[in-house]
Amino acid sequence: MTLLTSVFAAVICTAIWYKNAPKNDMMIGTLCWMYWGASLMWFVDAIFEYAELGAGYFTPEPADMLNDLFLGLSVVALGMVIWVVVLLVKDPKGVVRKAIFRNKTA
Amino acid sequence: MACFLVPTAEAIVTTIASKVVEKKEDSHEVAKDHSEKAETAHAHVPFSRKLGWLNKMLWGGSALLAFEHVWHGEVVPYFPFLTAASDPADAAEMLHEMSTVGVTMALLVTTVWFGIVAVTGMIEKRFANESSAEEDTEV
Fold first, then answer.
1. Per-residue pLDDT tens over the stretch B70-93
2. For chain B, which residues make up each domain, given as ranges?
3. Contact status, residue B137 vs residue B129, Cβ threshold 8 Å
4. Do the Cβ atoms of B60 and A79 come within 8 Å?
5. Complex prediction ipTM
6. CB contact (8 A) between residue A37 and residue B57
């Protein structure tokens, strides 16, 4: 479920990035790379788990599924928080700089 | 248990490598003639930028995976930080997981990155060929 959530996040972000390309003011590309990296890593995790559990991997307990979904959504949220921090620090549109400058002059 | 540490270690190495490559590229570009640089700027993606893609995948993936380990109580905010490290049997299992799952994770991300770099190279070549063909027809 965590893998599925991160793959969905990666695909949606990639679609948004493609729609706005070549403009990258919002640094959506960073979010894409992050979610794809995580998806690949969880994919490996899933393969090893499948090797261990066999077909049982595809029939998880409802409680485990819910916990994994909750984890997946939390992971997506954390990824977005990291992205917002990177966006504000790098400030490609100069919005933060302008806001600070305006506050200083006011 | 601590599989994310392997991609994290790789991320540290590739980040240092990309900084070194970036510095080299900067010094090389300064030495280059500006007109030549402008001509090739659109057809060439600097290698440091390509390494940046790998960095983002490795750092991003490792950070999100580390969060998963915190979620499952495998990483704690106090010494020894990894719950498996306090017990020798668990530590052995952790090292085994790092050498199998962790290494595979790092290898898969790197392999995918190599694929992306290869495709980018093909696009660069095609772009360069199209540009030179257009120049020939203009002349």
1. 999 998 888 888 888 888 888 899
2. 5-31+43-134
3. no
4. yes
5. 0.89
6. yes
